Amino acid sequence: MASTVPDLKVAPPPRELEREPLVANNRSIGWISDRVAGIVEGKTPMWWWMAFIPSALGAAVLGAMLLYQISVGVGVWGNQHPVMWGWDIINFVWWIGIGHAGTLISAILCLLRQRWRTAVNRAAEAMTIFAVMCAGIYPALHVGRVWFDWWLFPIPTANAIWPQFRSPLMWDVFAVSTYFTVSALFWYVGLVPDLAVMRDRARTKIRKFAYGLFALGWTGSNRHWSNYEKAYLILAGLSTPLVLSVHSIVSLDFAVSQVPGWHTTIFPPYFVAGAIFSGFGMVLTLLVPLRQMLKLEDIITMRHIDLMCKVTLATGSIVAYAYGMEFFIAWYSGSEYERFAFINRAIGPYAWGYWAMIICNTIVPQIFWFKRFRNNLAIVFIASILVNIGMWFERFVIIVISLHRDYLPSSWGYFIPTPVDILTYLGTFGMFFTLFLLFLRFLPMIAISEVKAVTPQADPHHPAGGAKGGHH
Amino acid sequence: MSDIFPKWTNRLPLKIAIGALVVAGTLTAGITYYLTPAYGRVGYQPIQPVPFSHEIHAGQLGIDCRYCHDAVEKSWFSNIPSATTCLNCHNQVLKDDSRLELIRDSAKTGKPVPWVQIHKVPDYVYFNHAVHVNRGVSCVECHGKVNHMDEVRQEKSFTMSFCLDCHRDPAQHIRHPKDVYNLDLEISPEEQKKMGTKFVHDWNVQSLQNCSACHR
Description:
The complex is a heterodimer.
Chain A: H1 29-41, H2 46-72, H3 87-98, H4 100-111, H5 121-142, H6 168-201, H7 205-214, H8 222-255, H9 267-293, H10 302-333, H11 336-347, H12 351-363, H13 371-374, H14 377-404, H15 419-442, H16 448-453
Helix pairs in contact in A: 2-15, 3-5, 3-9, 3-14, 4-5, 4-8, 4-9, 5-6, 5-9, 5-15, 6-7, 6-8, 8-9, 9-10, 9-14, 10-11, 11-12, 12-14
Chain B: H1 12-34, H2 37-40, H3 54-60, H4 65-68, H5 83-90, H6 101-109, H7 129-134, H8 140-143, H9 160-168, H10 189-202
């Protein structure tokens, strides 16, 4: 009977229809392990120290500024009537927005089976966690009496009162802390197989112990993989709504109030799009130089950069649409206060901030319609930085411009940040990059096992892959 | 892996988890018990400069609270009487007693007796005595049965939840105005509920729970 089975060999598709492989240059599975683990195992490069020392100094400045703010009070910031939310909330929203790319890449793209995510998800998730940490500083400290922060949590106390559950600021506490917890768990679970790789390759006792401790006894058995895949999928499912909920809730801090310029229903989707936009901006800012410095061009390929530019373009266009729609609704509402708020954005005393936002967020990403620009790393890098400058100005526009013209002209003011504001913000960069550089130095920045799964060799239908020759 | 971690470490996570639970539980219980006002304040009974006995004056002799604390119905503050109030009687009774030395001095010089304050709410709390006693909140609700205390001690916790217990359910705590200064009044729960509900309705007593009711 076997002799009657026809030959099922089908000719491979024409070359021009083939997608670019996710790991370039036909790199072997062993090469991937060596290259990624080598970043951690090799000698500390000079550029790492040159980046780390200023970052650590910046983090120290942050510590000093926070200590100063705690001991003296919120008055050291530029927050003044009528602009009672200043750089603290701008930077909170900015950092938390940046965090969104990590979760989007790790959760939503996982569920959508976008295989290209594997090369960037680990670094993007690390970015998310560190960005959320930077973000969390601001709301925790802007309350003034930080030692009462625990009142934000619903704990039964002698005061016999609960936090105000009707306040979106309260929802923020839950949204952000949930987001941080789930992101950190997701990141860690994904790390476990790679930590085992690091453990097995480790040569020193300390490394063996440290990686071994966090690898949780991973042996790579079938049962381990099966449990791992289940846990990963569950966490991806849990994180997916968080991508949408966290920034929606952050936007409700504004939208639930009745300040003209804030009180709009478009805020939640508009904030989520903006968050993903800025998050991808930050991922590109980090990965474009890193792939070169760490020689990861074959893993984070030009196709990856190209795809991330497209996400940036898509979300940037949503943001641009939202800017236009906000203006339309302000006019359409017939409310003179709404109209004033928006006209004041464009031609008021802060018009420079508004136009900086418009240029960076709506015009700059449009260059990514062209493959020529998506493939030019210098342009991608500069554009990604401009995106984040633009997104900072978006929060500045929303918060400061909406507040500085109060209902009573006698209360009108002009917000000026203090040096403490500026140094605190710069300090959060120090903290962010300190953590990120430590991450690069001590943890595999690419999901080794996952990248192996998307190589052509792992694809049974690919000429290079499959169970040929009896091995598997 | 056996070369990194010996076998006994397999049970370590469980042990650490149980240990952490025990430590956290003990800490929570300890803080709840020892570091809250219910423990820290109740029973406070400082030594007063003059051994004045509320039990004798308010209990045995039956002097009305308002004889000495005469501003309580008119003022936010229930005043400590001046020494001359004491001497209304004590210029006849025990007029040469050495224990009253300080009182006589104070009446002569006008320098107040340095009584030690026992019942105190924080500076950010606004408490008005007049409003409470005029709407049927008896002294006993906050101060306990002072008429049975030789020297006064703090009986109630004075936590925020203590205030809120009443503010959330005034009907359980208000009585007929004539009984406000009758610290020994016994009243059945059914009667309290009936009368309390009636007074809440008749006097339009509001369950004030907004922050600025007390924190102004």
